[in-house]
Amino acid sequence: MTNVFLDGEFIGTVDNPKEFVEELRKLRREGKISNQINVAYREFADEVVILTDSGRIRHPVIVVENGKPKLTDEWIKKLENGEATFEDLIKNGIIEYLDAEEEENAFIALREDELTPEHTHLEIDPSIILGLSASLIPYAEFNRGDRVNYGAKMGGQAIGMFSINYRKRVDTKCNILLYPQSPLVQTYTHPVIRYDKHPGGVNVTIAFIPFLGFNMEDALVFNKSAIERGLFWSYMFRTYEAEQKRYMGGQEDIIGIPKPGIRGYAGEDAYKHLDEDGIVPPETYVNSDQVLVGRISPLRFLGSMDQFITGIENIRESSIRLRHGDKGIVDRVFITETADGTMLVKVIVRDLKIPEIGDKFASRHGQKGVIGLIVPQEDLPFTPDGIIPDIVFNPHGIPSRMTMGQLLEIIAGKLAALSGKIIYSPPFTPKPEKEVREGLNNLGYRDDGREVMYEGRSGRMFKRLIFIGSSFYQKLDHLVSNKIHARARGPVTLLTRQPTEGRSKEGGLRLGEMEKDCLIAFGAVVTLKERFDSDRTKIPVCAECGMTAIYDKIRKKYYCPIHGENVKIVEVEMSYAFKLMLDELKSMGIYPKLVVEEI
Q1: Which of 12, 75, 226, 551 has its CA 20 to 30 A from that of 198?
Q2: Mind listing the pLDDT tens digit for each residue in 541-571?
Q3: Helices 433-442 and 404-419: angle between axes, nearest 10 degrees
Q4: What stretch(es) of the chain map to CATH 3.90.1070.20?
């Protein structure tokens, strides 16, 4: 007997699982049971799985019987004339949705001419096997699989126009590309998702030339004049919020300019740019750690008597400040209230991000790179027509990556730019290379996309023809201005007394085994000592029992918790993290004895 499971629950057994599964599918196709049900027979485990729960990814396929698809020409004509809809196809069992489990029992053909009597289903279009991001890549099947994967992943990181109402929204962090464009080479997914309403990149002129070593290792050389004209400019918006919280005992925060004498008061200069209400006005330039909303809070952890103590010594400064390392202009200020009726202030700060050395860009084919050099237009190579590339790409990036799709996109993009027509080239049904080459020939260009080019500074002609065309490039949300970080000294964590972690907390930079090896090889041992001394501390230790001694502040004396005062106590230099470990061992009832010797 074969076990049957409904959404993971055991509901019974059947003695003929294959017939049972076929009968259920027949009922679904006839519309007698819901078309949202999926059923599969797991042969390896000898169990039937019926799934009706939400959250499954299901994809539509055409049902095939005896090697022939049920979607006939008659049905296609009805769809074209508007006599039938997609829903009718599902109701009549012509198209059905399969989930991951049922797909294991299916044998799906990509194209109609590949059908055999063994096939159970046919894809509506071959490109449907790809996800949304991957289906936006033209000529995807000419690339290696991993590059399509990278390209799809980076498409989600691209800065674009994610929403037209971004001025009315308060996202924690968002980026807006100022002059986005629709790609010249598209797939059929672009018009379906209305990509032209929220594009995420720019069509750039790209030339394949090694440029004085500045585009080695995937780096890109950018045209300075193109950047000055607005190429890849974007705004980053970040939202800061301050709430006027209420506490037990009737105390509450006060949003306003803090007064002198309060704990943590930063001085008059720190608050001079705020309005009378303690909130920064719009269009104010603010820099790292500057106050956006002035606020004072009552001290926490108040005892039973302390809550009656009022006055300035019971208040601390708790203003909201701009993140460390950020800068920008206050864009908008919203003053509202929370569900509890407390005042809530939201300040949105914008920062103009102009491409600079270190910013990351990528094509749709997984060819990512950072800017290695920004060159004035007059020093870049040019064609006899006076065309100067926006990006100079290193041709060494192509052979090892095998992204032939990018080369095809560039010549198709060149034809699209010259003819003024968008070229559609979806995965598995691309625009033939022959047609693109013929189109370029008819316009008086070489069919391989190569042209004569001249060196910008000397004016000499390159001995070889240069591959130049148009490609869709994306600015990714990995900007050097958001990542650059260094510190000498700064805050430490309370528990381990080691430097804090992360750029926003003015954190330290970690040194690992390999960095240590580099410093030893370089002979910079003193630097190494300094690096590894971040939590150096001196701990008094009893010479008799090896336990940590205690310092009596009143009598200004050390004493051992076991042997008292009349014992030798020595100061031992150690890492504070080690001292912390000793304390944790003691808390578990383990006696960590430190054996101290005179050196």
Answers
A1: 226
A2: 999 899 999 998 998 899 998 888 888 999 9
A3: 40
A4: 2-124
